[in-house]
Every structure is written in C-alpha cells, then in structure tokens.
Design a protein that fits this description.
heterodimer, A: five-stranded antiparallel β-sheet, four-stranded antiparallel β-sheet, 4 helices, 9 strands, 25% strand, B: alpha+beta, 5 strands, elongated
C-alpha cells in the first residue's frame, strides 16, 4: 500500500490455488476473530438501510484514515464533518472516532395492529444483542426510523411521536412502558429520525432478560391514536433502504493482557 | 535446513569435519539452493476472489506479502517475531541478493477497518487498530 492506502498497480493479481485459498480464509477469519464464515440472510442481494448507513460510516472512517495519513504527510489535520454524512454532528463523529466497533441490529419483530380493543396503536421493535462480543461497552446507541411525507393525507397536521422502552409484558393487558422520548413532527416532514437509546442498550446488554424491545406510538394534535404507518413511519413492508434499525457504538472496556510467548 | 542436519550427522560420525561442511558461508549455502531460495512476493487478496462478497461489504480486498522457497529461519517456540525479524535483517544485510528483508516489522501494522455481516444479517464495522504480529520475518 502506498501512503494513501491505494494498492500498488504493480501487485500481481493471480488466482489462488484451492489449498492457498483455504489457508488464506483460515488466516483472515482468525484475524477477524470469527469462528466461521458468516451466512447472512440477504434479501434480494440488495443492501437495506442498515448496511447502507454502516457503509457510509466505513467510508467516513476510511477517508479520515487517508486524510490523517495524508495529514501526517502534509502536516494538516482533517475535520470530519461532511454535510452528506449522517453523522454530521460533532458528537456522533467523536463516538465514531473513539469506537473500536460499530454494530447495526436488524429489527426482529413488528406489530402493527392493536392487541386489545382499548389499546392505542403502537409498533413494537426488538433487537438481538446477544452477538456482542464480551468486554465491549456501549458508548452510544441510536434507534433510527424513516418518516415519509403524508401531508397529502394530513394537511397541516402535526403528530406527537413517542418512543417507549418496554419494561414488563403482561398477557392480559398492556405492557408496562418507560417513556424514552416524545417528539412533535409535521405531517410534511421526511427523513431519518434518530432516538438516543444508549442507556436502554446498556441495560439490555447487562441484563438480557430486560430486553423486551421498544414501542413507538403516534397521536394527532387532537390526541387521537393513529397508526404509525398512516403517519408515514416506514416499517418492514416499506422500501428496503428505509427500514428501521438500531446502531450502537462500542469501546472495549477490558484491557486484554497478551500472554507472554 | 534438513540438508544441514544430515551434514551435522555426518560430522558426528567422522572424526574429521569435511572440508567446508560447517564452513559454508551463507551465500554458498543459498547458492546451492538457488532455485528454492527464499523469495518475498506481493499478493492482492480479493474478498471477491474468495467468494466472500456476500458477507464482507468493505473493503474489496487487501494487499499482502508472503514468501516461498526455503526461508533460513523457521519460526518456532524458540524464536519470537522480534528475534526473527532481527536475524532476518542481519542475514539480509550479509546476503541481500538471496535473503529478503523481514516481511513486516514486529511492532506496528496498518490499521484496517472491515465492514461485514454476521449470521443474523446484523452489520459490524470493526476497526483493527492495534494488530499484534503473530509471526514475522519472511513467511
């Protein structure tokens, strides 16, 4: 690699023999610390919202590394705020810089309907955090929802969106909820909504039995419960690149002592 | 090195050391193995080539160095990465034509970031900043 991580054109690109290929795979998996080659369930081979978001983070890091290397070479420091990056806020880029791992989690479940006649509309989301390697601590976590413009249906209407952490579930009545955030939105608003769920994620990580997911509900300005889909929030039946997901930034909390050789 | 061992046994057996058997200079030694001399090669490992593009999102691949031929210093429990790199450097200085430099410095490697899917289609962006070299020299 030259100073800015580009592969020298002089490198020979040749097919690996199967034995060398197997050796190379074993070596790479051991460096990545993976027991085996992952088998993701990709839908239609296309990236949905989370991989697209993570690829943006990856490109931000890579360009920062390049400019740091270049910066060292030219003696200037790069600044990492680009308007096109979703992490344009200084705080988020600081999390990204400090993190040694970032993970996005697929939403496992979605309920759109009312379970009990008297219950308000709500949508549930659950994330499986069991894959997080030991020793990693959450430094920041976001829950991201995409909202589309619905002003053609609700002209000049504002909604009150509430995100809850499910504290306890009951078979015969509504779950116990803890309000994380409420936000007033215009029907005409369109784009990604981010909600800070750092504390909730840390609780789920430390006590998986408490990982009962999140609930999202929406009301009109007159306080009437409305389905989140009607209000424009994209769910599992919406466009792939607008699917809801959660992302968490991690930093190793333990210092690994390398065994002496 | 196996050749050396055989010579070593011969030496034990005969009372007089054979002329030059132990006195072989490194250059002579390597000359005799010219066709299998230790060489360093560059190789671009493409994840696509490995058929891994369905789970590694980025990077596309990475550049690696490796050697083939008879490298003079097998890494084992007695020689760690640092010693190996030092010895390899010294022998390279004495015989730069046939003995390549160490393949990597034992302390610092490039930081790389890898973006990949896990089995549950979660996406992981991992930064490998402080990579420790497990083996060094010319391997």
């Amino acid at each position: 690699l030259d100073g800015n991580n580009e592969v020298h054109p002089g490198f020979i690109q040749r097919r690996l023999r199967t034995h060398a290929k197997r050796e190379m795979q074993r070596e790479i998996l051991s460096i990545l610390g993976l027991p085996h080659r992952p088998r993701p369930h990709l839908s239609h081979g296309k990236f949905n919202s989370a991989p697209l978001f993570m690829l943006d983070l990856y490109n931000t890091i890579s360009s920062d590394e390049k400019s740091q290397v270049q910066g060292m070479l030219d003696g200037y420091q790069s600044t990492l705020t680009t308007q096109s990056s979703p992490l344009a806020t200084y705080q988020e880029t600081a999390f990204l810089n400090d993190a040694d791992m970032v993970m996005s989690f697929v939403n496992l479940v979605e309920y759109d309907s009312k379970l009990f006649p008297q219950q308000r509309h709500h949508k549930e989301f659950k994330f499986n955090l069991s894959q997080i390697p030991k020793g990693e601590a959450v430094t920041a976590a976001e829950f991201r929802l995409y909202k589309e413009c619905v002003s053609h249906t609700f002209h000049n209407e504002t909604f009150l969106l509430k995100v809850y952490q499910v504290v306890k579930e009951h078979s015969d009545r509504e779950a116990d909820l803890f309000l994380l955030e409420s936000r007033r939105l215009w029907a005409a608003e369109e784009g990604w909504l981010e909600f800070d769920i750092t504390a909730t994620s840390n609780l789920w990580l430390m006590s998986p039995v408490h990982n009962l997911g999140l609930q999202v509900s929406m009301e009109t300005s007159s306080g009437q419960s409305i389905s989140v889909k009607e209000a424009g929030l994209v769910g599992h039946d919406g466009a792939l690149e607008k699917q809801p997901f959660m992302v968490a930034f991690f930093r190793i909390s333990e210092v690994y002592i390398r065994t002496a050789r | 090195s196996t050749g050396g061992k055989r010579r070593q046994q011969n030496r034990n057996r005969s009372t007089q050391p054979q002329d030059g058997s132990m006195g072989l200079g490194v250059a002579d030694y390597n000359n005799s193995d010219q066709k299998t001399a230790c060489r360093r090669h560059e190789l671009y490992v493409s994840f696509r080539e490995l058929g891994w593009q369905d789970w590694i999102i980025a990077p596309e691949g990475y550049a690696a160095n490796y050697c083939d031929g008879e490298c003079s210093f097998p890494l084992n429990a007695h020689m760690n990465a640092t010693n190996h790199a030092i010895v390899q450097t010294l022998v390279h200085l004495m015989n730069p034509e046939n003995v390549p430099k160490p393949c990597c410095a034992p302390t610092k490697l490039h930081a790389i970031s890898v973006l990949y899917f896990d089995d549950n289609s979660n996406v992981i962006l991992k930064k490998y900043k402080n990579m420790v070299v497990r083996a060094c020299g010319c391997h």
